[in-house]
Design goal:
The complex is a heterotrimer of chains A (326), B (402) and C (264). With 326 residues, chain A is of the alpha/beta class. Chain A contains nine helices and 18 strands. The two termini of chain A are 41 Å apart. The mean pLDDT of chain A is 93. The model of chain B has no long low-confidence stretch (mean pLDDT 97). The chains are: A alpha/beta (326), B alpha+beta (402), C alpha/beta (264). At the B-C interface, helix 1 of B face helix 3 and helix 6 of C.
């Protein structure tokens, strides 16, 4: 009886959130007295094996056959299912990326297992594992009760902390053979195009950095753009900044302009008048940076810094760069 | 008595509402500011069949009923009255008049391309010196062999500078009043036709309003709609259809004002609470909510009567009178609820206020309708049957290809 | 091209925040019901294929007997036919059970070339059904399709929108694909379509029609069950003004907070 985590990787570089899943698997494994396996497939998988052990895996299954070079659902599902059956895996996890969701859905369907997709919490209660997931597009949380021996869970990224790697940990590395031959595999990957790092659109952005009257001029948007670049964010503006001609209208957020719902809205030098709020008040987290402690924006923000934005924004950019290792 | 909309009408409402929300709302404020007509919407509305919504399929239309026409009007005006005005003149005033009074040749030649949206149509009744007093018009049409020579000027004409076809009213017998008016189908390409846009309107900036001038314009005899001297009756029957769309549209304006007011009242705080908690604000909102239902019920009734082929001049006038006055009041109150922000074009409510003020003037002023309603109530006025009535809605006839 | 489009009726997205967990438990959700927005893209793509290559588009809807708004919208957009899968025994099916039911209906409908689904349903939100459907039918399945590059009698080549870029994949037909909103702009229903939809007689297939044992699906056959339904904890709207000696210190604390909030 064991726990297995599928590690998504490309060319020997693992998708960072996968270690969060391994960390949680380790925690559950320790609580329930079960070993934790990692499954790494594809070109460069061998390079990831040691890392997987340092993050908590006891045994790492590595599959580097040519048929497994890049992710394809059929051969990957076949290999994973063989490991699950042979090793008596009772909890199979992956991070809920597109590929992670593909593989967990296939394994659950093929083996008739219950699946909890996009889980945001996993806890041990007695001898059971309780999995929580958001439903109705995040509006209702549900705990998932499993009615099958094998439980499949895909985990939402950043739900669990990334564990600290322990280089001293030891474990076993096992090479696995593919189950399907190339002839048996119907899917062919014909090409791959990396996403061009263009400007993020306001309405799609998960992070927006916005400037208002406080930026004082078109040059004032430079630090804002810098911060946005580092965060992969879109740049927004209040009506005051647009009317003054400091930035174009398509950046305007508000009653007139765009209504946005990002995960994070950083309002720099914006007072927070009601017509601007109408455009961004449903953001998940609002940060306000403004010299004026009485600015109405602090009424709706979650976090505020009362300082000159020209001091805070560059410092914030530097700190983010540091944390991201840029 | 089933007061619910049928499944079909609900789907129509949903579809046009989506169109309004996705295609009109995002752009209309800008067009309103620039006093420009959103030409880009015409092909979109044509493709969806909105420009021929209640015209039979055999005449290029979408084959829906008259209630659908009302629903379309309400949902378009929810975004902006300017767009509903296009429906009022193109579909109601012009196309339905052709449906009611036209010969088969006239329907094939003019109604079909209009219903498909290939040609745009409008209605020329009002003149610089004759608005409420229709019979006081001075445009003249003199018969000369197989044409009428048309002279005169029409003013305050929606789509004057955009339309291809005009339904024009002129006196063939200047000695007479009502009985001297005749109706004509005029094409922009006829000699002597010039048009221009009127600038400086208080509201419906995004609607094209203009003048049309006829200088010895020859109109072929086969383009006369109905008989000589029948023009006044044709004009009034056309107004019955347009006033219906205005009434339904006004319900859309009330709804837009109500939604904006509710959203603002639930957001804005003063004296430590949301302003929606204050009773004087609540009083204004209550009026809007009640009037919305009344306006809807009045226009639904008219739609039903038209479907049944029942003469509805009185009921249409009543719906228009009530709904347009209620819509202006709702818009004025919405501005008040928004406070200083309502006085700015940052919010939509000032546009609603300017737009709705037009509707209590055009398609028969409030005063004209009050007089009409009194005349009906006092027994001074009784509607006599017309030579041609607006056809009752028959799904088989409307939806079959020929 | 014979194309099947599984569609689901769901609560209106704008009204999702107002749904109370008790409504979900009782199955009596008060919100307006609409066609699942993701499915609109699937229907649109199917219609475009039909317009360019000829063929037929059939919508398969799964839900309680009266839940026809979704499938009627598909007909109003232009789908040629529709079928409704409904039976008391099907209630509370999990994603795998749902996939089994749709697979049974697909088989009953006969030969098909392509099944196009939306990425997910806004209520169940699992993104499991498309893959489960493909696996149950033994067909290749490609998810997160943002563009169909080529489509011929025997194969389809698509662009998948993945986190790191666009992957171009070819699979033989018949196949299952799930689509994302980048793929197209769904058309409005036509008035003729609306008339057709309101008059449509949509056959309802139950357990017996599909040859499915009640124990395989519904609550009885479900491998997972939702329990302890609750609203996420409400956010405290109290602004934390970050204190610190220097700007650098305040900024460090802010970044800590934002990482804890999982927004960066």
């Amino acid at each position: 009886m064991s726990i297995a985590v599928w590690i998504e990787q490309t060319d020997g570089k693992a998708y960072p959130s996968c270690w969060e899943a391994v960390g949680k698997a380790r925690e559950l494994g320790d609580a329930l007295g079960k070993p934790v396996h990692a499954i790494v497939l594809g070109k460069g998988a061998g390079d990831v094996a040691k890392e997987a052990i340092s993050y908590g895996a006891d045994k790492v299954f590595v599959g580097e056959d040519a048929t497994l070079e890049t992710f394809r659902l059929e051969p990957y599902a076949a290999v994973v299912e063989k490991i699950v059956k042979d090793e008596g895996v009772e909890l199979f996890m992956a991070i809920a990326t597109s590929r992670g969701r593909d593989i967990t859905s296939a394994v659950a369907a093929d083996l008739g297992a219950g699946i909890a997709p996009d889980a945001t919490d996993m806890k041990v209660e007695g001898d059971k594992i309780v999995v929580t997931r958001p439903t109705f597009t995040g509006n209702i949380l549900a705990d998932i009760e499993f009615n099958s021996d094998l439980k499949v869970v895909s985990v939402r990224g950043r739900s669990f902390p990334k564990p600290d790697p322990d280089e001293s940990r030891t474990g076993e590395v096992v090479n696995v053979e593919p189950v399907l031959s190339e002839n048996e595999i119907k899917e062919k990957v014909v090409g791959f195009e990396e996403t061009a790092k263009g400007e993020v659109s306001l309405t799609d952005a998960t992070i927006i950095v916005s400037g208002g009257r406080g930026v004082k001029g078109p040059e004032g948007f430079e630090p804002i753009r810098e911060l946005a670049k580092v965060l992969g964010a879109a740049v927004g503006a209040s009506r005051a900044a647009v009317d003054a001609g400091w930035i174009s209208y398509d950046h305007q957020v508000g009653q007139t302009g765009k209504v946005v719902r990002p995960d994070l809205y950083i309002a720099c030098g914006i007072s927070g008048a009601i017509q601007h709020l109408a455009g961004m008040r449903n953001s998940k987290v609002i940060v306000a940076i403004n010299k004026d402690p009485e600015a109405p924006i602090f009424q709706v923000a979650n976090y505020g810094i009362v300082e000159d934005l020209f001091k805070v924004v560059p410092a914030l950019t530097e700190e983010i760069k540091k944390r991201k290792g840029m | 008595m089933d007061f619910r909309l049928s499944e079909e009408h609900e789907m129509v409402r949903q579809m046009v509402h989506e169109f309004s929300a996705k295609e009109i709302r995002p752009i209309i404020k800008d067009y309103d500011r620039r006093h420009e007509y959103p030409m880009e919407l015409l092909p979109k509305m044509a493709e969806l069949g909105i420009l021929g919504i209640c015209i039979p399929v055999r005449y290029g239309g979408a084959g829906m009923d008259y209630i659908s026409l009302g629903i379309v009007s309400e949902e378009l005006e929810w975004a902006d009255a300017s767009v509903r005005e296009t429906i009022a003149v193109h579909v109601a005033l012009n196309s339905l008049a052709l449906l009611q009074w036209g010969t088969e040749e006239q329907k094939q030649k003019y109604l079909v391309p209009q219903a498909k949206g290939e040609k745009i149509a409008c209605y020329g009744l009002t003149e610089p010196g004759a608005g409420s007093d229709v019979a006081g018009m001075s445009s003249r049409a003199r018969r000369e062999g197989d044409v009428y020579i048309l002279n005169g000027e029409k003013m305050w004409i929606t789509l004057a500078d955009v339309a291809d076809h005009f339904l024009v009213f002129a006196k063939t017998d200047p000695e007479k009043r009502h009985r001297g008016i005749t109706a004509f189908i005029v094409e922009r390409s006829f000699p002597g036709v010039t048009t221009g846009t009127i600038h400086g309107k208080l509201g419906v900036h995004a609607s094209n309003t203009g003048w049309i001038s006829f200088d010895d314009t020859p109109v072929p005899v086969e383009n006369r709609l109905g008989e000589e001297g029948e023009g006044f009756k044709i004009a009034m029957s056309a107004l019955d259809n347009a006033r219906y769309t205005v009434a339904a549209g006004a319900a859309g304006s009330i709804r837009a004002a109500l939604e904006a007011s509710v959203a603002y009242a639930n957001t804005r705080t003063a004296f430590g609470q949301k302003i929606g908690q204050f009773q004087l604000v609540q009083q204004m909102i209550a009026k809007m909510a009640v009037n919305l239902d009344i306006a809807r019920l009045l226009y639904y009734r008219v739609g039903w009567m038209k479907n049944m082929g029942i003469r509805n001049t009185r009921e249409t006038s009543m719906a228009k009178l009530f709904a347009t006055e209620a819509a202006f009041q709702a818009a004025v109150d919405a501005v008040q609820i928004h406070g200083a922000y309502g006085y700015s074009d940052e919010y939509d409510v000032e546009r609603f206020m300017r737009n709705t003020k037009g509707a209590v003037i055009y398609e028969g002023t409030t005063q004209i309708h009050e007089v009409l309603q009194a005349q009906y109530a006092l027994g001074y006025r009784r509607d006599k049957p017309l030579r041609r009535e607006l056809p009752a809605y028959d799904p088989d006839y409307w939806q079959s290809e020929e | 091209m014979n194309i099947l489009v599984p569609v689901k009726q769901v609560p209106d997205t704008a009204e999702l925040p107002k749904i109370d967990p008790s409504e979900v438990v009782s199955g009596n959700i008060k919100a307006t019901q609409i066609l699942n927005p993701w499915d609109e893209y699937a229907v649109e793509e199917a219609l475009r294929i039909k317009e360019s290559k000829g063929g037929k588009v059939t919508a398969i809807s799964f839900g309680p007997a009266g839940a026809t708004e979704g499938v009627k919208r598909a007909i109003a957009m232009g789908a040629d036919a529709a079928v409704m899968i409904s039976d008391d025994a099907f209630a509370n099916s999990d994603a795998l059970g749902t996939a089994k039911l749709i697979a049974a209906a697909a088989k009953k409908l006969g030969e098909f070339d392509l099944i196009i689904t939306g990425k997910a349903a806004v209520d169940g939100d699992s993104q499991v059904v498309p893959v489960a459907l493909g696996r149950t039918l033994g067909l290749p399945v490609v998810t997160y399709v943002a563009k169909i590059r080529e489509l011929s009698e025997g194969s389809i080549t698509v662009e998948r929108l993945l986190e790191d870029g666009r992957e171009i994949v070819t699979v033989p037909l018949p196949a299952v694909i799930s689509v994302v909103k980048e793929i197209n702009e769904p058309r409005y229903p036509t008035f003729m379509g609306i008339r057709k939809a309101t008059r449509a007689k949509i056959p309802v297939w139950g357990a017996a029609d599909l040859g499915i044992e009640a124990s395989e699906v519904g609550e009885a056959g479900a491998a997972v069950k939702w329990t302890n339904l609750r609203k996420p904890p409400a956010r405290e709207v109290k602004c934390e003004i970050i204190e610190g000696e220097t700007v650098e210190e305040k900024v460090k604390i802010l970044v800590d907070r934002l990482i804890a909030e999982k927004v960066i």
